Amino acid sequence: MTAKSAAAAARATVYGYPRQGQGRELKKAIEGYWKGRVDADALRATATELRRTNWRQLAEAGIHEVPTGDFSYYDHVLDTSVMVGAIPERHRAAVEADALDGYFAMARGTQDAAPLEMTKWFDTNYHYLVPELGPDTVFTADSTQQVAALGQALALGLTARPVLVGPVTYLLLAKPAPGVAADFDPLTLLDRLLPVYAQVLADLRTAGAEWVQLDEPALVQDRTPAELNAAARTYRDLGGRTDRPKLLVASYFDRLGDALPVLAKAPVEGLALDFTEAAAANLDALAAVGGLPGKRLVAGVVNGRNIWANDLEKSLATLGTLLGLADRVDVAASCSLLHVPLDATAERDIEPQILRWLAFARQKTAEIVTLAKGLGGGTDTIAAELAANRADLASRAGSALTHDPAVRARTAAVTATDGRRSQPYPERAAAQRAHLRLPLLPTTTIGSFPQTTELRTARADLRAGRIDSAGYEERIRAEIGEVISFQEKTGLDVLVHGEAERNDMVQYFAEQLTGYLATQHGWVQSYGTRYVRPPILAGDISRPEAMTVRWTTYAQSLTAKPVKGMLTGPVTMLAWSFVRDDQPLADTARQVALALRDEVNDLEAAGTSVIQVDEPALRETLPLRACDHPEYLAWATEAFRLTTAGVRPDTQIHTHMCYAEFGDIVQAIDDLDADVISLEAARSHMQVARELAGHGYPREAGPGVYDIHSPRVPGADEAAALLRRGLEAIPAERLWVTPDCGLKTRAWPETRASLENLVTAARTVRTELSAS
Fold it and tell me: CA angle, corner 113, sides to 141 and 711, nearest 5?
């Protein structure tokens, strides 16, 4: 096909769409099901209607080929485990008794069976359920869910393309099941898995699929020759089958690198590449392999992970370059639109001109359709759209919101000394022990306590004018009093104020800093039914006034025990926001760090002796290619130290991280120079404690003994057993006892019971240590 005919054939598509619905109907239905207020039929009806609504929106916008299989009740990787029959033995009976309840048991656990481990989907804030595999794993095909979704879309008269997690990525994301040797490689199961995928593909073809998309984002990471050979074997096998649909192998989040020649030569009909995060690298690599003659190329030129309006002329130029490199070029977002909110037009509190800088899922869909139209029919067919886009981009670039000379001058004046504590850790540790006088194995929580219905009602009442600010603050004051009283009675050693006043650990601070925009309806799925509203980091950052000092000092006035000041760190403030794309991330991180440094210093001046600066996103934001790690880790750790280094030696600096692969960044954790780090460890069976020990980590650490993402209450014996495993790696004088993460998503009954058990476990092990 000539470049001209390839352009004329251009179509618009997406890989996935937000699942929750305009009013988070899916969240409400699922949580209603868990509480017994919604039955299974009603839940399924809600899901059916949400899928129908999504597909109609896409089709009406001009999307030529809608995705199916991207919708999920909890997580698409968990759905893949169900599809291939990889059900953990401890959940098998529950799944056989009731497929839906068993599915949620794998995600959330039960009192008798722990859930699957949860971690981050590549470098996003989306959490997936980690497949558990072993040498005895037997795969069986169950394409029921995928076939049903496809049938529903086809019944609406739509052209639909099922989207599945590819077999190589699925195995590379998996871990050895409990009881399986830690060095077991799930990729050794590939030959067992491929016939199952072949059966699913055959079922989808029989159900009417012309194309099926197999997502292989793991191939954008550094891969060994053996892993690349596995990819080649996979697509030689699946591509060589005759009873299958056409195959589109998709990659995203980075450059495909050495995997591109492998996939280009594979007997598949199409490839999908990311031309936003790695446009130049993928373009060069595609040209180097001679393009994709005879194949379909889906070009992800609209950023599926951020919310800024696309530069249409720049994207058209990229698409034009691609025309001669494939038989057919289609236009898409760079990845699933799962990672952005649904519709920017729902925002009423953002200035109309600024709103035009933004593109959520529905606006990105329109951009994709516009680009496909321009590619196929020429720029004259989209002249009005191009003119409006140029004006919007110029408006943003020239806005006073994006440039604050005072902030830039302060950032430019930062020196290396500003990021160093005044004394080395051993001297600080001695000063902190003398000042705080904590027992062996000190107990604390990560920060937040349950966000009750009463608290959410109070916030809603304040927004609606049903109560005034004085009435709202009285409710917050009462909640803090109850939280402090409970912690004292339970016997925790370092207390928190519970964060009753905070809606979200990033949004709360963003609303008080200059340069940020907040949304009212910009919900994005983090995991399961947990949705967040990432703020928009649009301009230069500063802190007009103290943000946390008032409530922290109030809590401290209620107790003689130390109360931690609680802040969100600079990297997490970036990672869990939609960050500006018009300057280097390192510059933005430095601005945020200086604003937070002011808050840390004010907390200390107000008498706060323990200050926690959370950085759960430090590992999440790690680039996917190893060659890009040093530059990122240098500015990320510098930003943390810049935030925390201005305090006295006897002020104890904590940090916290959760639900990521920490072994990859132990040196960076060391480089933070925090006095204490708490980490998620319960689901991963204290793996992080062993990783810290292997590195020779010299400071204090609290690997979690209570998995807060499950409703189950761990017994005191269970927590003590985990604590003993932690002591195998970390000396008692440097070990803290904590939950895995904050408690805001939990209910009070389970929180009370779990923390009481945690304290009992700590006391039990202390007694054992004193007796030994």
Answer: 110
User: What is the structure's pLDDT at 687?
Assistant: 87
Residue with tokens 């949580």: 31
Indicate the Cα dihedral angle 486, 491, 494, 496, nearest 10°: -10
| Spans of the chain below 70 pLDDT | 1-8, 659-660
pLDDT confidence of residue 9: 72
Q: How many CA atoms lie within 13 A of 168 on its CB side?
A: 28
In sign, the C-alpha dihedral spanning 194, 200, 203, 209 is negative
DSSP 8-state assignment for residue 240: T
Per DSSP, 663 falls in state G
Residues contacting 229, CB < 8 A, separation 6+: none
What CA–CA distance (Å, rounded) separates 669 from 672? Answer: 5
- The model's pTM: 0.91
pLDDT value, residue 317? 96
Contact 513, 488 (CB under 8 A): no
The residue count of the chain comes to: 772
Instruction: List 308's β-bridge partners, or say none.
Output: 358
Q: What is the pLDDT of residues 301-347, one digit of tens each?
A: 999 999 999 999 999 999 999 998 999 999 999 999 999 999 999 99
Contacts of 646 (CB under 8 A, 6+ apart): 418, 597, 600, 601
Specify the pLDDT at position 3. 58
Q: Is the dihedral of CA 47, 52, 58, 60 positive or negative?
A: negative
Residue 278 near residue 219 (C-beta atoms within 8 A): no
The pLDDT score that the predictor gives to residue 757 is 96
Contact present, 638 and 644 (Cβ < 8 Å) = no
**Distance separating alpha carbons of residues 326 and 292, to the nearest angstrom:** 5
Question: Which residues have C-beta within 8 Å of that of residue 460, sequence separation ≥ 6?
Answer: none
Check residue 6 and give its pLDDT: 56
Return the structure tokens found at 289: 């392999």
Task: Express each pLDDT in 605-657 by its tens digit.
Answer: 999 999 999 999 999 899 999 999 999 999 999 999 999 999 999 999 999 99
Q: Are 216 and 169 within 8 A, CB to CB?
A: yes
> What was the pLDDT predicted at 660?
66
174, 132 contact by CB (below 8 A): yes
Of 161, 206, 165, nearest in space to 65 by CA: 161
Sign of CA dihedral 232, 238, 241, 244: negative
How many Cβ atoms are within 10 Å of 644's Cβ, its own excluded?
A: 28
249 contact partners, CB below 8 Å, separation of at least 6: 166, 213, 214, 216, 235, 263, 266, 268, 270, 271, 272
Kindly list the catalytic residues.
709
From the DSSP assignment, how many helices (H) and strands (E) are in the chain?
29, 20
Q: Quick check: 287 and 261 in contact, CB under 8 A?
A: no
Residues 305 and 285: their CA atoms lie apart, in Å, by 23
How far is the C-alpha of 336 from the C-alpha of 345, rounded, in Å? 20
